[in-house]
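can u do me a favor
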């Protein structure tokens, strides 16, 4: 047990037991490395200043003991990892490397410890954080820098006098007290300065920093040892040859204090002026790194090439390429710092900045590649007139007339059947779109996901994501994932929608995309709201509402989720209050599209309180007692199961209150069936209460609590059909069938497929 670190050691043990990630941070010498040395059987690595520009250097350290075990991976994943680590020639992608490394760590199951994270090369950092955000073995990171966003963190502080006395058993209590006050309890400094001159201790007590104190001792060394230590700090070596001291005591000072010797060592590793030949070679290196999946490293190499360029044109071209590579690799802050043209800056803002700013940048210049993104930014900002006008501007560009017209119709909610089919949209796109790697998928989904053919959109979306994952478009995957999840929400495929929304959230975090993260949170809030999961709904909605990126669309959807939750709990006043904010001019949650979609909910909340409302939909009119026998059936004609079930419930309630219980049973039974399939528990409970009031007993539960869809899948699997065959019959994907089967087995108390024929289905 480490002295004075009992609580911290217990936390490490808990993470080892339960899995997940932990970031340990604190100043140099505070004991981060010592604490994580207690992790048994770990794969260990450490960042190094001298290797920060060497792609996958730290990943190589982590995986080096496992390279003989790559056969546990599928062939294509093993090959991706070999190519990234320079063991095999050929291209790969950043996403492929991330997925392969994560699969390898999961297969091996050993914990991972990465020290000096502040000096980890960007390519390895991206891979390791990707793995840490997903289920797998425990992962520990130690850093002198700030805590890593999105991970549990543990800050190490200095030792107490009691712990310091144990660490220094031969020191007097007075000496221990003085040392603790002077060093702040830093374990390394406690040992290093135990025999320090009284003057140095007095200066520490007076407020001098430990780094300055180490610098003073560093300056007192012989010049040859200072030179060697400076080179060691510059190149990242862990032990300085020919120096009769332990370098770790002085490296922090050598790195943090300006020193001409270290500066000379660093300048010796770089050119002192422009060199076009070297710039060209670096540019070629960047292309090579990109094919290895090290796009983050390619950005740094291109930036070096830009600095070495001899002409303004070459410098601007390489700098823009560096910014684009940084953005694609999920580093928007670096891309923003590097700079670029207006379109690139707009792309960066569209995922990580203010949506109004993104719109202004992307709509400038009439570029057909950036105008659709400008439309999306305007929609997120709640600027629908500007979004429609920008779509019409796209339609005015030769070759883009149909796409622009469809995009404008999508914004205004008037998309026809042709524009609602993404395959039709793709076929009508100009060759520049059809031949592109990303836009051929993104633009049709951006248009058709707002139309009337959600099943076609889902099929297209699954195909698109398969292609985009294989091509490693990590920074571009979150938007289509969200569109797909939204489509599945409309179709009532809520388990699949939840999976894709969670994947979008992980991807958005991986790529530092708070706009898309807010979108994912808002959808997860809606899913949790409909199923009565109050805790998850409120947590996800709070995350969406707290995002300071001008994403009014996410804020509005999160507000709607909270209102739906209130409606399901009978709190009509709260529901009305929340829904009313969707229409407040310039309000933080105002959004015309969401306000229109939630009009029926607002009407219901107002009517339940005895307040008047203006009918905007058939369901609204029926709630206001305007021809209910006509408008309720009209409102049932919707492709969205949840909205159809909600309407059927309201219709049944009206019929029962009108003393027509026999008629009421028909829509109430429909509502019960739909709510059961969706697992919309609070709404199902209300519906069952209405059915009992009509004299109809609650229908019996399916075996082991299976949903009707799960029962159908289990029955077909028991007959011997494969996942692909079941998927074809039920119009689902094979992956979805597999997902449901893994949920069915524990419900039935069986181990696998072969036991299904013994179960009563």
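np, heres the sequence
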């Amino acid at each position: 047990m480490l002295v004075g670190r009992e609580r911290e050691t217990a936390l490490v043990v808990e993470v080892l037991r339960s899995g997940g990630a932990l970031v340990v941070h604190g100043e140099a010498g505070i004991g981060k490395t010592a604490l994580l040395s207690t992790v048994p059987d770990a794969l260990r690595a450490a960042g190094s200043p001298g290797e920060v520009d060497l792609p996958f250097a730290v990943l190589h350290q982590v995986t080096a003991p496992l390279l003989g075990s790559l056969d546990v991976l599928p062939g294509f994943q093993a090959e991706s990892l070999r190519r990234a680590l320079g063991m095999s020639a050929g291209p790969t992608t950043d996403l492929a490397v991330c997925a392969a490394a994560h699969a390898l760590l999961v297969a091996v199951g050993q914990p991972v410890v990465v020290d000096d994270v502040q000096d980890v090369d960007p390519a390895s950092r991206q891979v390791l954080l990707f793995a840490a955000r997903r289920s797998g073995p425990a992962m520990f990171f130690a850093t002198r820098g700030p805590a890593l966003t999105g991970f549990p963190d543990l800050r190490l502080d200095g030792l107490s006098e009691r712990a310091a006395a144990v660490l220094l058993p031969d020191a007097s209590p007075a000496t221990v007290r003085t040392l603790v006050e002077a060093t702040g309890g830093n374990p390394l400094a406690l040992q290093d300065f135990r025999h320090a001159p009284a003057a140095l201790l007095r200066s520490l007590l007076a407020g001098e920093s430990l780094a300055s104190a180490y610098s003073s001792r560093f300056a007192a060394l012989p010049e040859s040892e200072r030179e060697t230590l400076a080179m060691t700090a510059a190149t990242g070596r862990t032990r300085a040859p020919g120096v009769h001291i332990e370098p770790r005591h002085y490296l922090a000072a050598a790195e943090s204090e300006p020193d001409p010797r270290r500066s000379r060592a660093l300048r010796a590793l770089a050119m002192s002026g422009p060199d076009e030949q070297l710039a060209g070679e670096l540019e070629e290196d960047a292309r090579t790194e990109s094919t290895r999946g090290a796009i983050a490293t390619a950005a740094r190499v291109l930036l070096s090439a830009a600095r070495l360029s001899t002409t303004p044109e070459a410098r601007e071209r390489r700098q823009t390429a560096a910014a684009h590579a940084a953005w694609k690799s999920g580093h928007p802050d670096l891309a923003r710092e590097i700079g670029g043209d207006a379109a690139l800056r707009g792309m960066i803002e569209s995922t990580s900045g203010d949506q109004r700013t993104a719109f202004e940048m992307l709509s400038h210049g009439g570029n057909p590649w950036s105008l659709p993104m400008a439309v999306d930014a305007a929609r997120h900002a709640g600027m629908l007139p500007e979004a429609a006008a920008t779509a019409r501007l796209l339609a005015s560009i030769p070759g883009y007339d149909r796409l622009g017209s469809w995009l404008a119709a999508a914004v205004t909610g008037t998309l026809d059947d042709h524009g609602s089919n993404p395959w039709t949209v793709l076929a009508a796109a100009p060759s520049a779109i059809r031949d592109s790697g990303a836009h051929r998928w993104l633009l049709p989904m951006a248009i058709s996901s707002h139309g009337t053919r959600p099943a076609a959109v889902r099929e297209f979306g699954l195909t698109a994501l398969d292609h985009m994952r294989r091509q490693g478009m990590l920074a571009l995957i979150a938007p289509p994932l969200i569109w797909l999840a939204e489509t599945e929400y409309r179709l009532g495929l809520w388990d699949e929608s939840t999976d894709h929304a969670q994947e979008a959230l992980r991807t958005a975090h991986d790529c530092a995309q708070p706009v898309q993260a807010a979108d994912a949170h808002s959808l997860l809030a809606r899913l949790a709201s409909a199923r009565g999961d109050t805790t998850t709904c409120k947590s996800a909605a709070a995350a969406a509402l707290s995002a300071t990126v001008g994403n009014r669309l996410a804020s509005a959807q999160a507000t709607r989720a909270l209102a739906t939750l209130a409606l399901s709990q009978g709190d009509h006043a709260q529901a009305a209050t929340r829904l009313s904010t969707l229409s407040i001019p310039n309000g933080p949650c105002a959004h015309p599209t969401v306000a229109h979609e939630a009009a029926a909910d607002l009407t219901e909340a107002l009517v339940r309180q005895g307040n008047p409302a203006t009918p905007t939909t058939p369901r609204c009119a029926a709630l206001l007692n305007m021809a209910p026998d006509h408008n309720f059936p009209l409102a049932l004609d919707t492709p969205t199961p949840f909205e159809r079930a909600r309407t059927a419930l309201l219709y049944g309630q009206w019929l029962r209150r009108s003393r027509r219980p026999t008629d009421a049973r028909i829509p109430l039974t429909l509502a019960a069936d739909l709510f059961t399939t969706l697992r919309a528990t609070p709404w199902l409970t209300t519906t069952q209460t209405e059915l009992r009031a009509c004299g109809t007993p609650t229908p019996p539960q399916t075996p082991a609590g299976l949903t009707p869809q799960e029962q159908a899948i289990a029955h077909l699997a028991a007959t011997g059909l494969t996942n692909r065959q079941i998927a074809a019959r039920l119009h689902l994907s094979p992956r979805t069938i597999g997902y449901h089967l893994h949920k069915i087995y524990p419900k039935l108390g069986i181990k696998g497929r072969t036991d299904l024929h013994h179960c009563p289905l």
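Strands lie at 21-25, 43-46, 112-115, 139-143, 153-155. hope that helps!!
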